[in-house]
C-alpha cells in the first residue's frame, strides 16, 4: 500500500534545505529511529506507550512530507511548511500526539489520492476521525454570506460534535 511508497529517511529530510524541521520534531525522529528498547534504555522515553506516541508523530510527518513533496504554497515555499506549522502550534497548545499527527495529515485526504480509510489503517481510528472532521469542516463555505446557511452550519456543528479538537486543528 500507501506506506511503502512514503518511506522517509533521515537523509531525505537533511538534504531538503528548503524545509526547516523544528528541533522537537527532529527529537521525535531520533526516538523513532532508535526503536523502543534503545530509546527506553537511553532514557529518551519512559514507556512503550510514550515511544509509540512519539513514533506516531514522526510517521505522520514522514507520510505528509512524502505526499506533499513537489507541492508549493502560493508564496513558492514547500507546502509541507504549512502542516509543520499547524502541528507545531497544536503541540504548543498542549495537543495530544493524535492531534499533532492529525495536524500533519489534515490536508492529505484533500490534496492527494490517500483516503481517510488508509489514514485510519496507518495511524488509527482517532487520527482518522480528526482528519475527516477537518476535511468536512474545510467544505464549509465561509466566504459567501448567502451560501453560509443551514447546510454549511450543519456541517460545521456536525464536525464539532464529533470531536471539538477538529476546530483547533483547522
TrEMBL record:
Signal peptide stretch: none
Xref: SUPFAM superfamilies: HD-domain/PDEase-like
InterPro entries in UniProt: HD_domain
Family matches, as Gene3D superfamilies: Hypothetical protein af1432 (1.10.3210.10)
Domain HD: 79-170
PANTHER family in the record: GTP DIPHOSPHOKINASE RSH1, CHLOROPLASTIC-RELATED
Name this polypeptide is given: HD domain-containing protein
Species this chain originates from: Lotharella oceanica
Amino acid at each position: 500500500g500507501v506506506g511503502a511508497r512514503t518511506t522517509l529517511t533521515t537523509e531525505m529530510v537533511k538534504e531538503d534545505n528548503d524545509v526547516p524541521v523544528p528541533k522537537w520534531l527532529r527529537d521525535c525522529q531520533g526516538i523513532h529511529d532508535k526503536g523502543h528498547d534503545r530509546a527506553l534504555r537511553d532514557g529518551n522515553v519512559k514507556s512503550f506507550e510514550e515511544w509509540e506516541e512519539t513514533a506516531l508523530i514522526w510517521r505522520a510527518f514522514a507520510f505528509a512530507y512524502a505526499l506533499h513533496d513537489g507541492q508549493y504554497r502560493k508564496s513558492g515555499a514547500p507546502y509541507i511548511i504549512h502542516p509543520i506549522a499547524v502541528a507545531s502550534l497544536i503541540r504548543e497548545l498542549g495537543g495530544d500526539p493524535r492531534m499533532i499527527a492529525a495536524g500533519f495529515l489534515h490536508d492529505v485526504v484533500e490534496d492527494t489520492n490517500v483516503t481517510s480509510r488508509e489514514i485510519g489503517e496507518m495511524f488509527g481510528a482517532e487520527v482518522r476521525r480528526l482528519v475527516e472532521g477537518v476535511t468536512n469542516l474545510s467544505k464549509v463555505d465561509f466566504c459567501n454570506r448567502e451560501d453560509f446557511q443551514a447546510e454549511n452550519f450543519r456541517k460545521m456543528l456536525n464536525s464539532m460534535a464529533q470531536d471539538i479538537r477538529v476546530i483547533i486543528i483547522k
